[in-house]
């Protein structure tokens, strides 16, 4: 299938006359949308479309022995055989089922690797699909249509409070020398793409990372040209700025009529996510090498984890106990934290850290005029602007 898809993808690129020669933001937009449309066209041309299954899928462990035993049980009941014969055939059916399950899962266990061992945990879960139920508004009325549900979730999770943050501390930060920010190479793209999961849910263009790998293997020069042009011309394509928001129910919640019982998960286009991953990795490494992030901070840093945060917290508490002191902790849960970050102040902070102006220009473009749409019960709602 990969060869057929690659041939269709390259054919579509030739029809669109896409090249890596970019002279301005308009060509950046055209190159990004051209790659997306070529991926979508190749997928629709080569891959078989499978409608959503309304019934439960066939058990993966079921084999021909199970089918034969099941037919014998049905035949015995239809022919009115005696009770002992029906019982014997039913027992044989259950034996075939047990044997088929054992063989199926033993085969999975024999192929397990350290990097996929936790995938075995999906045996009993299967593939779940949720239909968003009726939601209750703060005034007690009900949101029953997909449109009213989307409006309620929008007002719940994407609150925007215009504020004028105090930038005195930022102005007092020392101005660091400009950081080196070399061009993005195909090797760097390959390294970041290798760690992307094929199971990651794609965005509106339905191009997952497996398809993106095929596209990059076929025309890696277009990816390299696009990503470098986005930084050089300080422009993030509009076709990569829309996100699909899928509400996912939180575990151990009893009242699913409350909007707070759901997580709003953003589904972004993989072409944009890959570039964002490259830029985030660079920001993390540069900030760490030049000491721009405080040692007390654990988030957004390389070589740190939640485990390190917990160990540091336990150390501080036990250290206070040794000194015969009391220890207390304040935990803050800020609703809509990332949606209310002041973009101008963020750019100013990164400017003080020494990031080049072309990188800051791209960041401004990336953060501006972003839109999102809720996908509820397989229906995509009206796009709304993400303010910030």
From TrEMBL:
<protein>
    <submittedName>
        <fullName>Reverse transcriptase</fullName>
    </submittedName>
</protein>
<dbReference type="GO" id="GO:0003964">
    <property type="term" value="F:RNA-directed DNA polymerase activity"/>
</dbReference>
<dbReference type="Pfam" id="PF00078">
    <property type="entry name" value="RVT_1"/>
</dbReference>
<keyword id="KW-0548">Nucleotidyltransferase</keyword>
<dbReference type="InterPro" id="IPR000477">
    <property type="entry name" value="RT_dom"/>
</dbReference>
<keyword id="KW-0808">Transferase</keyword>
<keyword id="KW-0695">RNA-directed DNA polymerase</keyword>
<feature type="domain" description="Reverse transcriptase">
    <location>
        <begin position="248"/>
        <end position="379"/>
    </location>
</feature>
């Amino acid at each position: 299938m990969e060869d057929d898809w690659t041939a269709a993808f390259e054919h579509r690129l030739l029809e669109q006359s896409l090249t890596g020669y970019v002279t301005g933001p308009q060509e950046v937009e055209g190159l990004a949308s051209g790659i997306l449309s070529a991926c979508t066209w190749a997928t629709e041309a080569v891959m078989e479309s499978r409608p959503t299954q309304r019934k439960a899928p066939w058990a993966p462990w079921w084999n021909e022995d199970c089918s034969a035993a099941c037919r014998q049980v049905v035949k015995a009941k239809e022919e009115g055989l005696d009770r002992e014969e029906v019982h014997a055939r039913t027992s044989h059916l259950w034996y075939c089922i047990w044997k088929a399950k054992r063989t199926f899962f033993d085969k999975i266990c024999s192929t397990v690797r350290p990097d996929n061992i936790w995938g075995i945990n999906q045996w009993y879960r299967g593939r779940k699909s949720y239909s968003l139920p009726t939601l209750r508004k703060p005034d007690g009325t009900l949101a029953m249509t997909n449109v009213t549900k989307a409006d309620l979730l929008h007002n719940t999770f994407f609150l925007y409070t215009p504020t004028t943050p105090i930038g005195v501390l930022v102005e007092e930060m020392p101005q660091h020398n400009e950081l080196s920010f070399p061009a993005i190479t195909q090797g760097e793209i390959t390294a970041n793409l290798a760690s992307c999961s094929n199971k990651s849910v794609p965005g509106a263009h339905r191009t997952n990372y497996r398809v993106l790998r095929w596209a990059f293997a076929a025309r890696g020069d277009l990816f390299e040209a696009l990503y470098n042009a986005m930084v050089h011309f300080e422009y993030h394509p509009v076709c990569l700025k829309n996100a699909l928001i899928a509400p996912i129910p939180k575990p151990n919640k009893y009242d699913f009529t409350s909007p707070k019982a759901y997580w709003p998960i953003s589904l972004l286009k993989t072409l944009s996510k890959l570039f964002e991953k490259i830029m985030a990795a660079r920001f993390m490494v540069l900030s760490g090498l030049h000491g721009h992030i405080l040692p007390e901070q654990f988030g957004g840093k390389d070589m740190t984890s939640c485990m390190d945060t917990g160990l540091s917290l336990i150390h501080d508490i036990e250290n206070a106990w040794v000194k015969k002191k009391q220890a207390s902790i304040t935990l803050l849960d800020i609703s809509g934290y990332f949606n209310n970050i002041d973009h101008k102040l963020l750019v100013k902070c990164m400017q003080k850290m020494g990031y080049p102006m072309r990188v800051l220009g791209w960041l401004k473009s990336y953060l501006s005029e972003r839109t999102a749409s809720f996908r509820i019960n397989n229906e995509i709602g009206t796009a709304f602007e993400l303010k910030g």
